[in-house]
Amino acid sequence: MPLPVAFLLVPQFSMMSFASAVEPLRSANRMSGRTLYSWQILSPDGAPVSASNGIAIVPAGGIAEAARSAMLVVCAGTGGHRFADAAVFGWLRRLDRQGLVIGGVSLGGYLLARAGLLAGYRCTVHWENLAAFAEEFPDLEVSNELFEIDRNRFTCSGGIAALDLMLDLIARQHGGELAKAVSEQFIQERIRDRHDRQRMALPARLGIRHPKLLAGWPPPSACRAASSSACSAAISIARRPATISSCGWRAPACCCCRPICRCSRWRWPAASSRPRTSPNAIARPTAARRATSGWPRPEDQPRRQSRSRPARRQRPAMAPAGS
Q1: N or C: which end of the chain has fewer CB within 10 A?
Q2: Parallel, antiparallel, or unpaired for β 147-150 and 101-106?
Q3: Are 71 and 5 in contact (CB under 8 A)?
Q4: Counting runs of H as helices and runs of E as strands, what totals does the chain give?
Q5: Is the predicted pLDDT of residue 318 greater than 60, yes or no?
Q6: Distance CA 123, CA 130 (A)
Q7: Domains of the chain with bracketed CATH
Q8: Nearest-CA neighbor of 41 among 59, 21, 14?
Q9: What is the pLDDT of residue 227?
Q10: Which residues pair with 39 in a beta bridge?
Q11: What are the pLDDT digits (tens) for 199-220?
Q12: DSSP β-bridge partners for residue 155
């Protein structure tokens, strides 16, 4: 018997995330030669719903006439953080009481969080909304993972990460060989793990590999101030002092001494607690260490023979005038 899956599309949903979530199910049916999955498309009121790219999708119905499903995927996009429909939130809570597996892709996590379905679960959203999401829901366990699967909840950062999420679910239910076959159908050279980063690595994004240049990224213009103390505590924002060494060398501080976020992939070099010394300086041990380490004592050192300077010749005294 196929596993029935429902997709709830809200206005301005992400077409990329929706396609990346439903297409692996179709391909799994084709590659296995069996109908492993079936799906239905829903909208809040049963009317056609437009994606963020303007393409309208005609659903099978609204949430009121939704057929029985085993899993629900909430698809949201650029307007997901503004979605506030009490009827939809109540419907989600009823499905949770019925024991459905419920998840969200892209900004679908906003709907689950506002319905109270993410309390006590790990979750993630798109990297662009991580800070705002953590500020609005400070009690949730928010991560920057590619996707999260925690018991009967799953969330995805969005984009083509929904493909990796569905491949993981297919591998859990029908084995890794089928998941690999589906991945190759979509010309995906590997199945990414949930721990893979959401954003590109700095060398690939910037086109540079010099470690000193990468250590100083991002530039001061990329610094952003924290909007509240709750956000600061949630995403670990702290100030970096301008002077980080005792010799007076000043780090490239951001303008107006604004805070710098430490939750990103990059790290500023840690300040050294010891003063910097000149390369030509000679470190001499203390008197206690000289006595045990055999360091030559001053009295054992040969004294430098000082040259005796020739006496300065005295000029003859001038006779006073008129003598």
Answers
A1: C
A2: unpaired
A3: yes
A4: 10, 13
A5: yes
A6: 10
A7: 3-185 (3.40.50.880), 202-243+250-261 (no CATH)
A8: 59
A9: 40
A10: 5
A11: 777 676 777 767 766 666 665 5
A12: 104, 148
